[in-house]
Every structure is written in C-alpha cells, then in structure tokens.
C-alpha cells in the first residue's frame, strides 16, 4: 500500500492525468476553507470577522493562482469564475 505522502503527491498532480479536472487542495485553499470553518463555528464578533477576512484572502489567492498558473484551460477558467464570484459576493 502506498504511503500517505505518495497518495497526497498523486492527488496534487490531479485527476484525470491527461486533462486535470480535480486536485487535492493546495495551501491557499486550505487556508480559505479553514477560515470558512472558523467563521461558521463562531457566530459573531471580532474572531468571526477575522476568519472571514482570512477565508476571503485564501480563496482569492487560490483563484488568482489557478487563473495564472492553472494546468489547462478548465483550471484557469475555474480560477477566473471563482474570482469573479468572490468579488461579486463581497460587493452585494
């Protein structure tokens, strides 16, 4: 059975290997998701607001990285769409 590290590395390369649609989360996405979890766990206040800022920043960094460095047109389009969605959701 492959080591957990090997499985994680394979997940970072994406699936399917010819045209990557799915990858394991990278660091900015983990930060964004962590911020979302903390913000939802804490209903209100300064910690909640800080967690939302961290979540937004992490997700924005992930989207920009996908937009600029995505492995194919689908991943770049995913980054662009998510970045637009993030901006629109924060405006309204």
Protein described:
The protein is 74% helix and 0% strand. The protein is built from four helices and no strands. Helix 2 packs antiparallel against helix 3. The model has no long low-confidence stretch (mean pLDDT 92).
Give the averaged pLDDT, no decimals. 92
Total number of β-strand segments? 0
* Unreliable spans: none
Tally the helices.
4
Q: Strand percentage, roughly?
A: under 5%
Give the overall shape.
flat
The secondary structure category is: mainly alpha
H-E order = HHHH
Q: Helical residue percent?
A: over 70%
**Sheet bearing the most strands, described?**
none
Radius of gyration: 15 Å
Distance between the termini: 49 Å
Present the secondary structure layout.
Layout: H1 4-13, H2 27-41, H3 46-69, H4 73-91
Helix pairs in contact: 2-3, 3-4
């Amino acid at each position: 059975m492959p080591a957990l590290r090997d499985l994680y590395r394979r997940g970072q390369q994406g699936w399917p290997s010819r045209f990557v649609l799915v990858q394991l989360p990278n660091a900015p996405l983990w930060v964004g998701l962590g911020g979302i979890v903390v913000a939802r766990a804490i209903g209100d206040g300064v910690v909640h607001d800080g967690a939302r800022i961290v979540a937004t920043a992490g997700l924005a960094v992930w989207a920009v990285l996908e937009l600029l460095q995505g492995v194919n047109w689908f991943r770049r389009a995913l980054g662009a769409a998510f970045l637009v969605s993030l901006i629109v959701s924060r405006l309204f």
